[in-house]
Amino acid sequence: MNITGKRIAVLVADDFEDIELTEPREELAMAGAETFIIGIEAGVVVKGKHGTTVEVEQAAAEVSEFDFDLLLVPGGQGPEKLRLDAGVLDLVRRFDDAGKPIAAICHAPLVLVSAGRADGRRMTAYRGVREDVANAGAEVVDEPVVIDGNIITSRNPEDIPQFVEAIVEILQ
Question: How far separated are the first and last CA of the chain, in Å rounded?
Fold first, then answer.
């Protein structure tokens, strides 16, 4: 599990699911990747549902997809805020257009929905939002991890080990 030198943009907003940020970030760092916190506004501290805080290093509207190897989007309620930001949606579209991997867990596939990138894809998500993802045109399945081209989706915190494994595989 060696992804030394890989750069991962972690896209977050307030009320993200803490463990869906902290655990993948820690495991990816142990595998050699460098992670960067990206959000709606640079310099703002965002807080997870369970109290974890991180400072947004760069605004989504100001980063290039070519500066990173993968875009990671934790779930929770943060994606509800992310999907309303034009800069975030533009970044997601640019990542997808460039064929760069996007990894979204739990509620985060809703960001792909709002960016118009769910239609025709095979995906999974937290059970409470699967209908929304399906209504956006995705084939939704109940599996721990689904990889469709450059898009990796996962259901919930219990699936984090398989989710991280899929991320590492796609980056190797």
Answer: 8
Please tell me the distance from the alpha carbon of residue 5 to that of residue 33, in angstroms, as a whole number. 6
25, 81, 83, 107: the catalytic one is 107
Q: Classify domain 7-171 at the CATH superfamily level.
A: Class I glutamine amidotransferase (GATase) domain (3.40.50.880)
Give me Rg for the CA atoms of the chain. Answer: 14
Q: How far apart are CA 22 and CA 133, in angstroms?
A: 25
Residue 50 annotated to the active site: no
Predicted confidence band of residue 2 (pLDDT cuts 50, 70, 90): confident
Rounded average pLDDT over 29-45? 97
Residues 43, 90: Cα–Cα separation, whole Å: 20
pTM (two decimals): 0.97
